[in-house]
Design brief:
The protein is of the alpha+beta class. It contains two helices and five strands; from the N terminus they run H-E-E-E-E-E-H. The longest helix is centred in the N-terminal third of the chain and has 16 residues, at 3-18.
Length: 96
């Protein structure tokens, strides 16, 4: 999955979830399998925050500045969802 598509998917998910977000709901920007990191803007009723670093989070209402999400917190809050992800696609090049 391309990093551009992943960023758009995350942005769409954040937008959909923002409508029913409580004060503790947040989004986290994760790196792509190749280690690159994109950007996403979290826009809510109380503000807008730019995420542009790996494991950076923001409240969905946009009310607080971005914060670092520890590995432990990431696993606790999103571990089940991350475990359910399909394996990354692999490209195979055959030269004859």
């Amino acid at each position: 999955m391309s990093s551009c598509f992943q960023t758009l998917l995350l942005a769409a998910s954040v937008t959909l979830l923002a409508a029913c977000a409580g004060p503790r709901n947040y989004a986290v920007l994760l790196p792509s399998p190749d280690g690159s990191v994109g950007k996403v803007v979290v826009q809510g009723q109380r503000g807008e925050q730019l995420l542009n670093k790996a494991r950076q989070g923001a409240l969905l209402d946009g009310s607080a500045p971005p914060f670092e999400v520890s590995s432990e917190q990431l696993q606790r809050d999103f571990g089940a969802a991350m475990a359910a992800r399909p394996p990354s696609a692999r490209a195979v090049h055959a030269v004859f």
